[in-house]
Design a protein that fits this description.
single chain; mainly alpha; 9 helices; globular; disordered N terminus
């Protein structure tokens, strides 16, 4: 029997690298300049996430409109009127969606509500962090470094070392070795960004970055569970080599709200932990 060619796997990795090479400069520019550049970016991202998620759940046209509209307008409310306005608008959209689900008696109504709330918190958190005047841009860059480091470290450690599976029923390709590699790479990447941008490359930053790699992996597993529930491989096809927007942003959506929560509880910037 002929052995399967390894070329498709290499081609997919190449495609992922090329997509990242195109997207990375764009992300760096909009995060660095902030203001309306970043707002426009997160509005487009929110709309794309809303469309992908509502399609995955098989939502009707009205539910798709509510979800997509909510995720696209939440950052606008946050930028114009502050975090409480953003949360209030999110609550209004959730009530509208809940009434629609009750009227239509949607079988996936709970999934629609919980998922939309989860995505809303993620996009509000990353937007709120960028709004911080002193070090908002650097905090967002730090989160990007942690999540990218987690993905890269997990990918190569998982494939190079293998070993016991992390969550075989949810994502058969993930291993404990991959998680370890992701934590190490995230610690190094997060420490490097803060050391370069804030000259505060402390051991605590490295430890926090490695810890957030676990949160990023949890976000990845949650999205994998959703795709398994919906019977799809990718959330979409918008980003070549990566799949959909949700496939690319799952780690950020889980990490950003936790960073915001810890920043509020501690009363200080995460960059000085």
């Amino acid at each position: 029997m002929a052995q399967p060619s390894a070329r498709p796997e290499f081609s997919n990795l190449t495609l992922r690298i090329l997509s990242a090479a195109v997207l990375l400069p764009l992300v760096v520019v909009v995060v660095w300049f902030g203001s309306w550049y970043f707002l426009t970016f997160v509005v487009l991202i929110g709309a794309a996430m809303g469309l992908e998620y509502s399609k995955l759940c098989g939502a009707g046209a009205i539910a798709r409109g509510i979800i997509t509209g909510a995720l696209a307008t939440l950052p606008v409310m946050l930028f114009l009127a502050g975090p409480f306005a953003g949360l209030a608008w999110g609550a209004v959209c959730a009530i509208l969606l809940m009434f629609y689900i009750l009227i239509r008696r949607s079988s996936d109504g709970v999934l629609l509500l919980i998922g939309t709330a989860y995505l809303s918190l993620g996009i509000l958190a990353i937007s709120w962090l960028r709004l911080v005047p002193e070090d908002g841009a650097l905090t967002v860059f730090w989160i990007f470094a942690v999540v990218v480091g987690t993905d890269v470290g997990a990918y190569f450690a998982g494939r190079g070392i293998g070993g016991p599976k992390l969550a075989p029923r949810i994502s058969p390709s993930k291993t404990w070795a991959g998680l370890g590699g992701g934590m190490i790479c995230a610690a190094a990447a997060g420490w490097s960004v803060v050391a370069f941008g804030a000259e505060n490359g402390s051991v605590n930053i490295a430890l926090a970055s490695g810890g957030f790699a676990v949160i990023a992996q949890i976000g990845d597993l949650l999205e994998s569970a959703l795709k398994r529930h919906c019977g799809v491989k990718d959330s979409g096809t918008l980003i070549p080599g990566h799949g959909g927007v949700l496939d690319r942003l799952d780690g950020y959506l889980s990490v950003a709200p936790v960073v915001v929560l810890l920043a509020i509880v501690s009363g200080e910037s995460p960059l000085v932990w």
